[in-house]
Amino acid sequence: MRILISAMALAAFAATPALAEVTMDDIANDQSITTQIVTNGMGRDLQRYSPLKKINRHNVKKMYPAWAFSLGGEKQRGQETQPLVKDGVMYVTGSYSRMYAIDVKTGEEIWQYDARLPEGILPCCDVVNRGAVMLGENIYFGTLDAKLVALNAKTGDVVWRKKIGDYKAGYSYTAAPLIVDSKHGPLIVTGNSGGEFGIVGAVEARNTETGDMVWRRPVIEGHMGELLGEESTMTGELNATWPGDMWKSGGGATWLGGSYDAKTNTILMGAGNPAPWNSHLRNAGEPTDGHKGDNLYAASRIALDPDTGEIKWHYQTTPREGWDYDGVNEVVGFDMDGKRMAATADRNGFFYVMDLENEGKLHGATPFVKDISWAESIDLETGRPNFVEDNRPGNPADAADGKKGNVIFAVPSFLGGKNWQPMAYSQRTGLFYVPSNEWGMDIWNEPITYKKGAAYLGAGFTIKPLFEDYIGSLKAIDPKTGETVWEYKNKAPLWGGVMTTAGDLVFTGTPEGQFKAFDAKSGEELWSFQTGSGVVGQPITWEQDGQQYIAVASGWGGAVPLWGGEVAKTVKYLNQGGSIWVFRLPDEYAAN
Ligand code: CA
Question: How far is CA 579 from the centre of its chain?
Fold first, then answer.
């Protein structure tokens, strides 16, 4: 028996590709090193752009599946992951905080890790995971019980495991971590999830080898930061933009992780909705009260110093937020007219372009979805929205029974003109490819008080489609003008990531199960493949043994079936799943 086990272990070892350590140079140059993907976003500015062009708009029609891998078990639900690839091994995170190492040549499993979640976790929006990051011999990912885990990439053994927050208070984690260098050495940077439970958003930076905290920056004013085990500075100024004690459970979950701009050495994170949703309880319903109800730094993009965790600058996309327009969506760095800029497509329906070399100064803000109701426009000088005051959900205190404020119909819905699903930027076309949705909501406010571990909304809502024939809308947007150059309309809401390549292709998937390739310049659909379940994952591409490969996770889920109101009913027929699909060209087309 003993001999048999060692023989099997030896066979498994022999089949495992040799793994070289991931260096900080690998991370810094992830976009240009086309044989690997070791960061979220295929590069830390999150462009999701690959210089590979073996697969291109002329031959993409010939692409076929090389293999598929099942994430198995009884547990399926949403598969929102972005796979990583290093030295012939693919690393995939699955729903319920699982990770798999897969041999890219054969599609066979090398190891599997299951975080064995406790009872009583409180994920708001499905049991998803959005990916991992690698450094040295380790691979890191966050789990639904709000832990950060470092695994040995070769064996899947746990190296260390650290607590991000108390899951019983509503903290959880789903985003891919970010690795940056600092004067303290490499740091692994995470945010937190739980904005619907009155948690306090924070950004945390840990030593990559030990997991020990180096700095911590809460993103709600009044809370103290931490540096090397000591208190550092207060975030903002106590009660400058928050009334009373509301900041203590003020939300601002940093739940989508962040990007890093090397040129300005800046970490860029987003903070979610202020809590509770009922803005009147946060003074945000009183436009005459100066900036008292702005509720910093919720619904903001925040630029942080990697050495100290101090806030360098911020931009609040939705001050006085009252529609659950989280400010978390990814900030994508890119070059425009010789300057380092960043773009972000907000839940609130506006596409913002900011100047990274000038403290995020607003360069443009244009609607990227139709019929936005809550603001007329964004003032480019002050950066503040020109609010439509009538479109703020009413104060329940004004109702006769004090229980339900005025119901309003707001666009976009709280699931956003764009939600978590990442856009892509092509260095060839200069366009952003934005997976958006056209929908609105009935929303009203109700009274609420904070209770640990309980939903902290003070609001009710129903999401409704705006148009009969489609909700999803993949748009090619010119960051210089904010104009939509082309649009692909999809019946169900889009919830998957986008990738673009130097082959002038744009890839994304649909809840209906199709994984699609579009012409990056014209938007013409060139190729489509039915993956068997809804695609809400994030596509990747890499090169191995002279072949270009493309992969995406399939597995319907995420927030839409759980929170989508009338829209959820229209997509009820979609089946769950859990698989990774890998595509390539036949040899005769791959040679060029
Ligand atoms: Ca939220």
Answer: 20
Supply the residues annotated as catalytic. 324
For the cut 70, the answer to whether the pLDDT of residue 14 exceeds it is no
Which pTM value belongs to this model? Answer: 0.96
DSSP per-residue letters across 264-290: TTEEEEEB--BSSS-GGGGTTT-TTST
Length of the chain: 592
Average the pLDDT over 486-507 and give the result.
Answer: 98
The dihedral through the CA atoms of 432, 438, 443, 448 has a sign that is negative
Q: How far is the CA of 196 from the centre of ligand 1 (A)?
A: 6
pLDDT in tens, 185-215: 999 999 999 999 999 999 999 999 999 999 9
Confidence of residue 4 (pLDDT cuts 50, 70, 90): very low
Residue 407 Cα to ligand 1 midpoint, Å, equals 19
- Distance, in Å, from the CA atom of 110 to the CA atom of 123, rounded to the nearest integer, reads 29
For the stretch 354-366, pLDDT in tens is: 999 999 999 999 9
Domain that holds residue 83: 2-115+123-590
| Distance from the alpha carbon of residue 325 to the mean position of ligand 1, in angstroms | 7
Identify whether the C-beta of residue 557 lies closer than 8 Å to the C-beta of residue 576.
Answer: yes
The Cα–Cα gap between 494 and 484 comes to 17
364 CA to centre of ligand 1 in angstroms: 25
Task: Specify the CATH number for the domain of residue 299.
Answer: 2.140.10.10
Residue 592: pLDDT band (50, 70, 90) is low
How far is the C-alpha of 509 from the C-alpha of 420, rounded, in Å?
A: 14
252 CA distance to ligand 1 middle (Å) = 8
Instruction: Respond yes or no on whether the N-terminal peptide bond of residue 274 is cis (omega within 30° of 0).
Output: no
Decide if 573 contacts 561 (C-beta within 8 A). Answer: no
CA–centroid distance, residue 210 to ligand 1 (Å): 32
Structural domain count, the chain: 1
